[in-house]
Amino acid sequence: MATTATRTDPLSFLGAAMDELRQKGTHFKLRVLESEQSPECTFDGKRVINIASNNYLGLTTHPRLREAALDAIRKYGVGSGAVRTVCGTMRIHMELEEKIARFKNVEACVVFQSGFTANAGTVSAILGKEDFIISDELNHASIIDGARLSRAKILVFRHKDIAHAGQQLASVKDQPGRKLVITDGVFSMDGDIGPLPQLCDLAEKYGAIMMVDDAHSSGVLGRNGRGTVDHFNVHGRVDVQVGTLSKAMGALGGYVCGSRELIDFLYHRARPFLFSTSHPPSVAATCIAALEILEQEPERIERLWENTRFFKKELGTLGFNIGGQNTPASETPITPIIVGDGKLTMEFSRELFKEGILATGIAFPTVPEGKARIRTIMSATHTRPELEQALEVLGRVGKRLGIIQ
Ligand SMILES: *Cc1c(COP(=O)(O)O)cnc(C)c1O
After folding, report:
1. 114 CB less than 6 Å from ligand 1?
2. In 38, 47, 154, 248, which residue has its Cα 20 to 30 A from 64's Cα atom?
């Protein structure tokens, strides 16, 4: 007689891991957006002011971007049907790459499915196991994953510590492998800017490749949002510039800019490019329209910075720890409210939500243990009354929970 053996669930250890998170108070449920992604929106049936999204310029709902997407769908359908190298390269993908290359003033550009795959695919394609990656300790996870996939040796330097980066480079200068110096342009959790000119000096001194991840600077820093290379005027000194189309640009995607040779090489060797289907034409069309908006509506970037200056100043006045010593560490629309304890941070976020403010708590492992925080992000489209209301609630709930006096 056949017996049905009672099978013990081989994934039960995952439940135990989740229990541990519940105990620590950092377990979360996904909040579900039921309206457009905009400064005032509806999550889980509740109307809130959103100070958490990366929608820096309000482009997720821009009428011209919607039209561009719809137009592309009508003309070309909804999918590309293949990876780029098989038969999924559409004219509109090439147009987007050419447009980005002109915007960034470089020879060429390749677009990936996301900023994540742009970083991971590029770092792992250009380096191998004899090589060295000199990387800021706060660099984004996609850089770290790319570095691991490359099997190169990873030498981490303390956050923005040029002397330490120099020591790391010096320690391998006589080794035959290639060296890559890599930094975020804007650090996503603290909102500070990477020291590009000094890192370029080091890369030049040691003959290293220089790479920057401009995910949070695309559309935010530099002329018309050209990024940190433009912000610091280090044109021609950064070999590999990564950017995202998913944040300020309002849609989805990542890109790599550099020499024609670099881009040709990535067309042949970057695994996400070779093995994952290209964007639907509507996404490419949206991104092309977004680039046009950056050039034609620079006032959006001005409003973003006005809101940033106002909000940062008021957060400081309320007495929140917004990072840094005497001056705030953040120099961009990202302003962290450092709480420290993960559980208290998550409680702060939940209480804010109850009072109509969506501000996400971020804890370990996204940020180091003991550095849990609410990360606030400004948008060009927040109105002054919305920001005033957000500040009023932040102050009131912050006091109630003993986060500020
Ligand atoms: C968000 C982010 C990415 C990933 O970009 P996506 O387009 O969302 O995949 C890469 N690097 C940094 C620094 C980021 O903040």
Report:
1. yes
2. 47
